[in-house]
Structure formats: structure tokens, C-alpha cells
Design brief:
Helix content: 40-55%
Shape: elongated
Mean pLDDT: 92
Order of helices and strands: HEHEHEHHEHHHEHHHEEHHHEHEEH
Number of helices: 16
Strand content: 5-15%
Strand order of the largest sheet: 3-4-5
Number of strands: 10
Distance between the termini: 22 Å
Length: about 375
């Protein structure tokens, strides 16, 4: 009982893994259906989020249809939803009510803000909560004077979807061992904060030092992280533009180990003694490395880096990734039966079984009669 990206994608992954997934929709269907181009039954994003499912149309505000939904839930191992808590309570579909009736059920509920707190019942989406409300969007400003950048939707939802899958999987193990179901409480806010855990942990440590050694709140929040590449502490973990307008991303996290080799390749070995001044003189290093990279061709420097064992990667364009050799080799994309384009594969692979789409996304209400007739036979 969910629309758009996060919960539907989690359910699609479970379908890839072999689960029977029934998508409950209103007569108007999931909003992603309506993003299809003329001549298409589904938008590509709807296919990606809903492959391998069955679609059943029910009006959950109709008493009889709501009874049918409750009966369907009684036959299920997992119930997944992203509906707001007040609406679920009004329908008798909140966790406490459902759990009293179905003790073995794993109940996965995604909320924007969490199950408690002053914003718990407020609406929210991927860009508004996962990006904006967590500090991630602010971090991408290039300076204090610059506004936040445009962000592409769905990234936070897709990350959160895999957290939901992990939570459901662990709850199923617990169910198998104890016979008890439970609430899997997923939250977009927690998800966005978690992915920024490196910086937030350092910030938490800084604020814990308030009043110690002269630290103040202003001290702890001085020089916030910005997306300006010239401010990176390690010039060997940065991107550089070549003469043919392509970019190389260096990955030399261990500065003393990696930096001298890079400097020698760039003809900047005279700067090696100045490494002892890092990070204080990082802007000088980045400026000099920018000049050196601007004189070399992309293919030439990549070949040299490969030969010398430098840790780097080309900065790819997203539109090139569908046919990227390495993406194909690692199984990042997969074909769906009956669909003329690739979709993203389940990101985790298994040695003993495959996780692949078994059917295309369903038409709206395609399996309504089939599912409800099977349900009636069990009642």
C-alpha cells in the first residue's frame, strides 16, 4: 500500500528475490503511472519500481473493499506501506491494530520524519526530507553566498528502499525463529542523516567539547563543509580537468602514500617537500595540479596512472552508464521480460540463487479478479 519510489522499489527487490508481491492501488493508480510518454503503458521509472508485481485495485475508503484488504493482509507474511500514520489509524491499518490481529506479520512502515516527534504526522518527500532537512542539500552549496543546487529526485528514496529490504529480511529471520512479527520502522530523515554519518559524527564530537578547552558553539560550527572543490583537505582526493575537457577523480586517501607519485607524474616533484604544510597549503597544491592537468590529454594521463598504479577513476556521465562495460560486467542492469529497455538490477548479488525480474510491471488492476477470487476461496 504505497506509491512513488521508496517502498515500491523495496517491494520490487523482494519480487526479484521470489516473493509474491501484490500492489494495492486506487482506481487512479500510482502517480508514477501517469508519467508515461504517449504510446507507453508505463513510465520507465514505474517499471523499475514495480516489475514482477500483481496489481489489485481497491478503494480502501469503501467498507467492503477495506474488508478485502484486511483479509489479504491476513494471508500475507509482510505488509508494506508509506501512508501517513493518521490515515492508517483511521482505516484500522496502523501497526498496533494489525499486529493484534496478525501476530506473525512483518509490518514495514516508511515515514518521512519518524514515528514520534513534532513533525511525525507531517508530509514529506525525498528532496524535502532526505536532502533538505538533513543538511545534505546545504553541504552542496559552493559557498555561503551560493544557494542550494538543483537536486535530482529519487536518490534518497532508492537508498532508503534498500534499508527497508534489509529491515524486512532481519524481521523475517526473527519471525522464523520466534513466530512473532514486528514493526520495521523506516524513516527518510534517519536515512539521510545516516548517509552523512562521517561528518555528523565529527560534528557531534565537536559539540560534545563545548565548554572544554575554550570551545564554543560558534567554534564547533566554524567553516562548515561546502562543495567547493578547492576546499578539500586532501588534494589527492579531488577531481581535475584535462586539456580535452574531461575529468579525472583521484582517490589517494592515504596522502603520504599516493601524493608523491601523482606529483612526479604531473612534473611537480619539486612540491613534494611542501606536503608537510598540508592541509594548510592545500589551495596552492590544487591550483598547481589544476595547471598541470590542464596540459595533458585525458587518455594519456589515464594510461600513465594505470601504468604507475595510481588510484583514480574517470568522472563518468550518467547517460553513458547504461552501456558502460564495467557496469554491465558487474550486473548493474538487467532485462525485464516483455520490456524493451534495461532497468536497474537488485544491487546485491547472491552465490546460491538469482535475484532477477520475473515479469514486467502490471497494468492497473491487472490481477484484481484473480487475486480476489483466490482470496474468496480461502474465506
Amino acid at each position: 500500500l504505497a506509491t512513488l519510489v521508496a517502498v515500491p522499489t523495496a517491494a520490487a527487490v523482494l519480487a526479484d528475490l521470489g516473493a509474491e508481491v501484490i500492489k494495492i492501488e486506487s482506481k487512479d493508480g500510482d502517480a508514477l503511472r501517469r508519467q508515461a510518454q504517449p504510446g507507453e503503458e508505463h513510465s520507465p521509472l514505474f517499471t523499475n519500481c514495480n516489475r514482477g508485481k500483481k496489481s489489485v485495485v481497491l478503494n480502501v475508503r469503501d467498507t467492503e473493499d477495506l474488508k478485502l484488504l484486511h483479509a489479504l493482509i491476513d494471508t500475507a507474511d509482510i505488509f508494506m506501506t508509506s501512508e501517513r500514520a493518521p490515515e492508517l489509524r483511521g482505516l484500522g491499518l496502523d501497526f498496533d491494530t494489525v499486529h493484534r490481529r496478525h501476530k506473525r506479520l512483518v509490518y514495514a512502515h516508511l515515514t518521512p520524519w519518524g514515528q514520534s516527534g513534532p513533525r511525525s504526522d507531517r508530509r514529506g518527500d525525498d528532496v524535502g526530507v532526505w536532502w533538505a532537512a538533513t543538511g545534505l542539500m546545504d553541504m552542496l552549496r559552493t559557498s555561503d553566498a551560493a544557494g542550494p543546487p538543483r537536486l535530482l529526485p529519487g536518490m534518497g528514496d532508492l537508498v532508503t528502499s534498500q534499508q527497508i529490504v534489509a529491515g524486512i529480511s532481519l524481521a523475517l529471520v526473527y519471525q522464523q525463529r520466534t513466530g512473532e512479527g514486528q514493526l520495521v520502522d523506516a524513516c527518510s530523515l534517519r536515512s539521510g542523516l545516516f548517509v552523512n554519518g562521517c561528518l555528523l559524527t565529527m560534528q557531534a564530537r565537536a559539540e560534545a567539547k563545548l565548554g572544554v578547552q575554550g570551545w564554543t558553539l560558534e567554534t564547533s560550527r566554524k567553516n562548515p563543509m561546502r562543495a567547493d572543490r578547492t576546499g578539500t583537505f586532501n588534494p589527492c582526493v579531488n577531481n581535475y580537468r584535462t586539456v580535452d575537457n574531461k575529468f579525472v577523480m583521484l582517490m589517494g586517501l592515504e596522502l603520504p602514500r599516493h601524493m608523491p607519485t601523482v606529483l612526479k607524474i604531473l612534473g611537480l616533484e619539486h612540491l613534494i617537500p611542501d606536503m608537510k604544510g598540508l592541509p594548510g597549503n592545500r589551495k596552492m597544491f590544487i591550483a598547481e595540479m589544476d595547471k598541470a592537468f590542464a596540459k595533458v590529454k585525458f587518455d594519456d594521463i589515464c594510461a600513465t596512472f594505470d601504468r604507475e598504479g595510481v588510484w583514480y577513476t574517470p568522472v563518468k556521465k550518467y547517460e553513458d552508464m547504461v552501456e558502460d562495460v564495467q557496469a554491465g560486467a558487474c550486473g548493474a542492469f538487467v532485462n525485464v521480460p516483455g520490456v524493451d529497455h534495461k532497468v536497474l538490477a537488485t544491487p546485491i548479488k547472491f552465490s546460491e540463487f538469482s535475484a532477477v525480474p520475473r515479469a514486467p510491471a502490471p497494468s492497473l488492476g491487472q490481477q484484481t479478479s484473480q487475486v480476489l477470487e483466490a482470496l474468496q476461496s480461502k474465506l
